[in-house]
Amino acid sequence: MLKQRVITAIILFVLLLAAVFSLPALGWALLVALMIWQGAVEWARLSSMAGRVATFYCAATLLLMLGILWFDAGAAAERVLAHHLFWYFVAVILWVLVVPAWMIASWKPKNPWVMGLVGWAVLLPTGLAMIDLRNVSPWLLLGAMSVVWVADIAAYFAGKCFGKNKLAPAISPGKTWEGVFGALLVVSIYVLAVGWGSGLFKAYPVFPGIIIASWWWVGLAVIGDLFESAVKRQAGVKDSGALLPGHGGLLDRIDALTSTLPFAAIALVFEQMSR
Question: What pTM was computed for the model?
């Protein structure tokens, strides 16, 4: 299983690099819209949607994402920023308030349309963030994503080697506090190495604040991971889908990105609005 996971991960990484650095802006936006559609397909399954209801939800999600892109293409820059800011605030409310309360209360909504609305709050800001960050710089998007990947890999191996104390046994029995601490340690080293190696620390007075921010980033990634696990447990499935051999579905690979990328994007929007 580990070998298959590694092979799939390498192939996905190569394809992602090719897309991020070679596709034109429109091509990248359409690819992201396709990813959001696939995420909606898997979310519909987790939400117990079936038949025409699931088809309608997935089509509506794709049309909504394409509609957002169409609006952005014809709107002034200020309106685009304000529009995206709305979606990012939706994500902030979801991940800072709704999801923690959801998991603490072990809420299990039965209405698939409630879950559908939550799915839009998860998927659409993530898609916009992937577009906005990449439009500024492919390296900015890759950097934001790489911190999540490093945290995920570190948590996996630290948990395997040292894990004894369960993080949230009722939601995801395989996750441990040792895995979280391993992720915090390795991400700190990674951020320091990238910061010094790239000259970022020389150009901007961001140290040690960037280390604290990276810990917060890991916390958000853990929340995103746990939330998808909670939704899958409610649906009675192990994976969100079977699209990626060894990994499951697309949501299984981007769960931690859904809870982190919108926060990077909202910081970017504020920086642009302050100019």
Answer: 0.91
